[in-house]
Structure formats: structure tokens, C-alpha cells
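Continuing the series of single-chain predictions for the mutant panel. This is the parent chain; the variants come on the following pages.
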Amino acid sequence: YLVDISKELDNLVSGAKNGRIIKNGVNVAIIGKPNVGKSSILNHLLDEEKAIVTNIPGTTRDIVEGTITLNGVALNFIDTAGIRATDDIVEKIGVDKSKSVANSADIIIYVLNNNEEISPEELEIMGNLDSEKLIVFVNKSDLEQKINLGNISREIILGNTVTDNGLDNLLIAIK
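Parent structure:
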């Protein structure tokens, strides 16, 4: 009897989640440390200049959102502040908000920089994320590869926003 009730509850939860997704779309958080290209990825996926992009770390301090429709489902992309240790109070609020957005998102795109080694902090953050929701995108493939991908035991999508290389593969992974 309890097994039947458990199955019914599972069906209700699954149906509610699907209903929410159909009604509100899928929330996709774009996270990573500063200057890995999160805002550039958002702009390219939305095909508009929604987020400010500079070479100054910490440019994005609050979330920037935009939506596209893929196969009839709304994808709500959320660009977040770069995650790093900081003494700047405003930036710290943005970093905390980024972590919160990642935890509540349906899909997490974790962005790494092809032109830099993976830091222990990045590996720790990635390890703390829900692996079932995680897509790893290595950006800046147009630059010299300095990243060691041997530390990552999951599928990796490689690309860049300069030539739009790999962004189609990113959308396929989201789908």
C-alpha cells in the first residue's frame, strides 16, 4: 500500500515539475569565475547585446536574464556574477546571488577558460554542483589551450564566442 502511495506522489511531483517547465520555461544558470566569458555566451545565445562585456573582472555584479525558445520550450538564461573570493561588499552580494541562482536552476552551464589552468576553487565549486544539472563549457577555444581537462570526468563542450564555435553544441546539450 505504501509503495502505491509513493509511486502516486512521485507521479504528482514529476507532473508538477513538467507543468512548471511548460508554463515558465527552463531556468539555465551560466556560472563560473570572472572573465571566462559568461556574459558573451549569454549575448550570443540571445543574439543581442543584453549583458555588458569588458575585460575587467567583476563587470557583471548582478544577474542578467534573457529568454529564447528552443523546440517550443522557453529557455530562461541567467548570466551571473563571477564566482570568486572578494572583499568588495557589492561584488560579494553578486557572488552569493550567483551561487543561489545555480542551486535553484534547472540546468547549470559551468564555464571554464581554455586559456587558463583550472583553479582548485573552480574544481571545488564544480564538485559542489548537482551533477545531473551540470553542463561544462570550456570557452575561448580560439586561444592557446592551457587548461588541463584531465581533472574533469564528464563530457565537456569546447567553443568560443568569437567565431560562435561550439555554441550549437551547447544548445544541443541543453536540449
